[in-house]
């Protein structure tokens, strides 16, 4: 037993910290009211769903303080970039925008610019920002996002530039405000960080070691979401297969799914991402037996070549990947499978690439994200001798896209004429009379419908296959 417990003062540091940040939010809110401030904010989110979820937290904090969402970035009082560094182009975008915003700030010096997210955890980036981007007022990282109220207060009261980056993560801080994008579906973090160190990937360096949220916290959050009308939850983690292993009372991801399934009101459960190397039979069985768990699995392949997979430190080979696919299909016959593939990893030859094409042809994915390998300083792959020439990687990339398009189109044809249940999410960007939503298999469907249907599950007959989405017709209810 620890000393604190003996003394009867066992305060969870995460709980204490959350109370402290909430107190600062109240102080700032009072200050905003007293001074009659009418400030606005704008957040641009780059990168993955982890960042999207973090931005919901930032905007929740800001709105509780009294900031309103701005109509445009250029007129906002506070502009935030929640950055990504998984590939170089995501970083270039941020530098480009900072140059653009500099002009606006010249005219309106009260505009404040804040940067956070994964890119801030890179030393070289931080040095560059400190030296050459004086227009940035606040910089924080991925490990201290929960301290945003305190850092914001310091920036507003001092008028000075505030930089706070932690090299390592601290406690998981629960229960801070959050402003969710949709009222009927929500993302929920189940774990943070990654321990896998795939040799091309920077995520473990910028998001820290793997740690899981306690199941009680997750279940409490999801029960509250369900009470607020949320029907679909997406559980987020870089590798959900290792969920719960390091908790004081270990629990598996499959058990967590089982518990979430029991929450009334939750109709659909999704998750991202799981790593093929340690996909457990328990999880496959949970997919088959829990009706609320959607029949969709995102299973990143990265490469089909066993030789390259080894150099990527992925801990599986082509045969093992194909075996996982077989077991998933055995358990859930019409499961939809999606993937991530990297083209142009150092040393990738024509033969290696053909192995990737072979796996793609064998598996027949429902959809795929394909990426040109991007060299990330500090990762083992960046130091590998045989970087692939850009033209060669691009040639492979284009061919892979052609193969995928052909296969995805052919596979989608089997869905035409079928009736699917679409959770209507929003009106189409191009046509106000059209709604867009997703099926349990995660297919995107556009159909004619009134915006009053947003948030409901609507039966739709699939009419046309547009390769990356479907168009359908709503089946009128009796
Ligand atoms: N944890 C997830 C992936 C997170 S990053 C997983 O393991 O599946 C999302 C995707 O970005 C990866 O699956 C990979 O395909 C791609 N990616 C990561 N690093 C990359 C790099 N250096 N260059 C190109 N693509 C990369
Ligand atoms: Fe990156 Fe690999 Fe971790 Fe995914 S599992 S985040 S690709 S290191
Ligand atoms: Fe996500 Fe990009 Fe960070 S992919 S974890 S936002 S580096």
From TrEMBL:
Q: Localized where?
A: Cytoplasm
Source domain of life: Bacteria
GO molecular-function term, one example from the UniProt record: tRNA-2-methylthio-N(6)-dimethylallyladenosine(37) synthase activity
Q: What name has this protein been given in UniProt?
A: tRNA-2-methylthio-N(6)-dimethylallyladenosine synthase
Gene Ontology annotations for the cellular component aspect, listed alphabetically: cytosol
List, alphabetically, the InterPro entries matched: Elp3/MiaA/NifB-like_rSAM, Methylthiotransferase, Methylthiotransferase_CS, Methylthiotransferase_N, Methylthiotransferase_N_sf, MiaB_methiolase, rSAM, rSAM_horseshoe
Q: Which cofactor does it need?
A: [4Fe-4S] cluster
Entry binding sites for [4Fe-4S] cluster 2 = 194, 198, 201
Per the entry, the cofactor note is: Binds 2 [4Fe-4S] clusters. One cluster is coordinated with 3 cysteines and an exchangeable S-adenosyl-L-methionine.
What are the binding positions for [4Fe-4S] cluster 1 in this chain? 48, 84, 118
Q: State which gene encodes it.
A: miaB
Q: Which NCBIfam families match?
A: miaB-methiolase (TIGR01574), MiaB/RimO family radical SAM methylthiotransferase (TIGR00089)
User: For the Radical SAM core domain, which residue ranges apply?
Assistant: 180-411
Task: Fetch the Pfam families from UniProt.
Answer: Radical_SAM, TRAM, UPF0004
Q: Its quaternary structure?
A: Monomer.
Family assignment? Belongs to the methylthiotransferase family. MiaB subfamily.
- Major localization class: cytoplasm
Task: Provide the top EC class.
Answer: transferase
* Keyword list, A-Z: 4Fe-4S, Cytoplasm, Iron, Iron-sulfur, Metal-binding, S-adenosyl-L-methionine, Transferase, tRNA processing
Cited SMART domains: Elp3
Which reaction is recorded as catalysed by this protein? N(6)-dimethylallyladenosine(37) in tRNA + (sulfur carrier)-SH + AH2 + 2 S-adenosyl-L-methionine = 2-methylsulfanyl-N(6)-dimethylallyladenosine(37) in tRNA + (sulfur carrier)-H + 5'-deoxyadenosine + L-methionine + A + S-adenosyl-L-homocysteine + 2 H(+)
Residue ranges constituting the TRAM domain according to the UniProt record:
413-476
């Amino acid at each position: 037993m620890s000393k604190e417990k003996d003394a009867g003062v066992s305060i969870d540091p995460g709980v204490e910290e959350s109370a402290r940040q909430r107190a600062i939010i109240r102080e700032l809110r009072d200050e905003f009211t007293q001074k009659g401030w009418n400030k606005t904010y704008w957040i641009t989110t780059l990168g993955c769903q982890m960042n999207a979820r973090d931005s919901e937290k930032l905007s929740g904090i800001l709105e509780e303080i009294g900031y309103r969402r701005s109509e445009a970035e250029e007129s906002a009082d506070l502009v935030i970039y929640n950055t990504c560094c998984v590939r170089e182009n995501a970083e270039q975008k941020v530098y480009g925008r900072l140059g653009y915003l500099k002009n606006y700030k010249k005219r309106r010096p009260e505009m404040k610019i804040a940067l956070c997210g994964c890119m801030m955890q890179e030393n070289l980036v931080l040095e560059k920002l400190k030296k050459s981007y004086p227009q940035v007022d606040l910089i924080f990282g991925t490990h201290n996002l929960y301290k945003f109220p305190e850092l914001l207060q310091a920036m507003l009261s001092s008028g000075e530039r505030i930089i706070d980056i932690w090299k390592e993560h601290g406690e998981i801080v629960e229960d801070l405000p959050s402003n969710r994008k949709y009222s009927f579906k929500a993302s929920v973090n189940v774990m943070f960080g990654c321990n896998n160190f795939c040799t091309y990937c920077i995520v473990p360096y910028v998001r820290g070691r793997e740690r899981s949220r306690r199941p009680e916290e997750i279940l409490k959050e999801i029960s509250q979401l369900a009470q607020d009308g949320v029907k679909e939850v997406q559980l987020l983690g870089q590798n959900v297969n290792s969920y719960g292993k390091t908790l004081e009372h270990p629990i598996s991801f499959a058990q967590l799914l089982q518990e979430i399934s029991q929450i009334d009101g939750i109709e659909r459960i999704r998750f991202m991402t799981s790593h093929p190397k340690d996909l457990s039979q328990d999880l496959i069985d949970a997919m088959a037996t829990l009706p609320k768990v959607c029949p969709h699995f995102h299973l990143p392949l990265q490469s089909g070549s066993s030789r390259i997979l080894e150099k990527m430190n992925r801990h599986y080979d082509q045969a093992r990947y194909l075996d996982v696919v077989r077991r998933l299909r055995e358990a859930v016959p019409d499961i939809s499978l999606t993937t991530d593939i990297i083209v142009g990893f150092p040393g990738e030859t024509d033969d290696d690439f053909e192995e990737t094409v072979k796996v793609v042809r064998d598996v027949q994915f429902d959809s795929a994200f394909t990426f040109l390998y991007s060299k990330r300083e500090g990762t083992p792959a960046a130091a590998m001798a045989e970087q692939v020439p850009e033209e060669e990687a691009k040639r492979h990339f284009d061919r892979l896209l052609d193969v995928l398009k052909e296969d995805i189109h052919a596979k989608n044809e089997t869905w035409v004429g079928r009736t699917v249940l679409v959770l209507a999410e929003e009106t189409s960007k191009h046509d106000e009379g059209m709604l867009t939503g997703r099926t349990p298999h995660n297919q995107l469907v556009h159909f004619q419908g009134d915006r009053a249907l947003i948030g409901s599950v609507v039966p739709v007959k699939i009419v046309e296959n547009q390769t990356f989405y479907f168009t359908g017709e709503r089946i009128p209810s009796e």
